[in-house]
Amino acid sequence: MADVVDADELLRRIRxxxxxxxxxxxxxxxxxxxxxxxxxxxxxxxxxxxxxxxxAVRKVxxxxxxxxxxxxxxxxxx
Length: 78
What we know:
Layout: H1 7-32, H2 43-65
Helix pairs in contact: 1-2
């Protein structure tokens, strides 16, 4: 069974997870434009999907840590 943690430790863990998701998002973003090995037509598509997945995870964790962090600035749209 997991130990009980205080709010500060929980926030540290969420931030660590958010930072990890951001690194993965950057990693897969870089692979979207790379050429695939011969015979692998799914490489760029897989990279695009994984980039989107990690972006979604990062944005959710951003909202947990800093509510409103992903709202567009006034006058901007998504």
